[in-house]
Design goal:
The chain is α/β, with parallel strands linked by helices. It contains 13 helices and 13 strands. Helix 7 links the parallel strand 9 and strand 10. Helix 10 crosses helix 13 and helix 11 packs antiparallel against helix 13. The protein is globular and about 55 Å long. The two termini are 40 Å apart. 37% of the residues are buried.
Length: 334
């Protein structure tokens, strides 16, 4: 009987009974064990296996949004790209795991020739429909690697935001990214910060998004730096982003009252007439999809009232939001 398991990044042997945590997924009833690599400090789960159908089945609200519209607001990790990435570098950019296309929309506006891939077919259909791009493909990276090889395609920049933590073969994933880059090409992207504010007391307590079969790996700043350097990337930069102030009230709410998102979805459903839309749209955006102006105004007032009531509990966290954000942004060269 095999008594060792290997780190999926640095391939160091770890005792099979050396796991730190057992988790049973409510989505597939699979038992997972979490390991912490003593060499590169990456945390990973076994069994390490992507389930593609998990994404199209819309288990999480974000995937409903990916299938409905192209987002227009930049996320904090996308803002970091346009802040830190060299402004004099442009060219052909491939976004791996392009989701709803919001990043490639802004990248195109910034002067890049944009390409995108995602193995979630519904997301790709949505991006093609709303952005009118013919360089977006329903493929995983391995399939696209073979396609690009046949077409002799190389890229100046390859981005992957919130993608690396989903990989069951992260080392092979990063090697394929390297193989698709031109000499001197860049990578950029983000992963969840496992040391972020509220990770243990809210995210890991009430939600399953940062657990398998959704997220298979967890990174700290130092673990991500080590991982990228081990694969052979140079000029590695990893930034711990700021925790968004607007996210403090909902996190404080969950810390005090627990998860009441189901109740809030019911309230929004009354305003938009559709639970699916209620799960997708924030209160601020309900007016775009609902003609019930009074109901929408009431929910906006309710949210404002909540924020005011929670403000005394929010203020002590203002000194902790710097470098304790939800994401780690990274960039490097090949």
């Amino acid at each position: 009987m095999e008594e060792k398991t290997k780190c999926p990044i640095c391939e160091v042997d770890i005792e099979k009974d050396g796991f730190k945590e057992i988790y049973i997924s409510p989505y597939n009833n699979q038992e997972y064990k979490r390991y912490e690599c003593p060499n590169c400090d990456v945390h990973f789960w076994r069994p390490l296996k992507i389930i593609p159908e998990f994404y199209e089945s819309e288990v999480f609200e974000s995937y409903i949004a990916f299938h409905e519209v192209v987002g227009t607001r930049q996320n904090e990790n996308h803002k970091a790209f346009f802040k830190y990435f060299p402004s004099n570098v442009r060219g052909r950019l491939l976004d791996v795991g392009c989701g709803d296309g919001r990043f490639i929309k802004h990248a195109k506006e910034a002067g890049f020739e944009v390409w995108g891939i995602d193995f979630d077919k519904k997301s790709v259909e949505n991006v093609k429909r709303n952005l009118g791009l013919d360089t977006v493909f329903a493929m995983n990276l391995e399939e696209f690697y073979e396609y690009a090889k046949a077409k002799n395609l190389k890229f100046d920049v390859i981005t992957f935001f919130e993608v690396l933590e989903h990989q069951d073969k992260p080392r092979e994933f990063l090697e394929m990214v390297k193989g698709l880059l031109k000499e001197g090409g860049y990578i950029a992207g983000s992963v969840p910060n496992r040391e972020r504010l509220f990770a243990k007391e809210v995210d890991w307590k009430y939600f399953h998004g940062d657990h398998p079969p959704h997220h298979l790996l967890r990174f700290s700043k130092s673990a991500l730096e080590k991982a990228l350097k081990l694969i052979g990337f140079s000029d590695v930069e990893v930034y711990k982003l700021k925790f968004p102030f607007k996210e403090l009230p909902p996190y404080i709410e969950k810390k005090i009252f627990g998860n009441i998102d189901g109740f809030k979805v019911k309230l929004k459903t009354l305003a938009v007439g559709s639970e699916r839309k209620a799960r997708v749209y924030a209160v601020e955006d309900l007016g775009k999809v609902s003609d019930k102006k009074v109901a929408v105004a009431f929910l906006k007032a309710l949210k404002l009232g909540r924020n005011i009531v929670l403000m005394p509990f929010v203020l002590p966290y203002l000194g902790k939001i710097r470098e304790n954000g939800i994401n780690l942004y990274f960039q490097a060269r090949v």
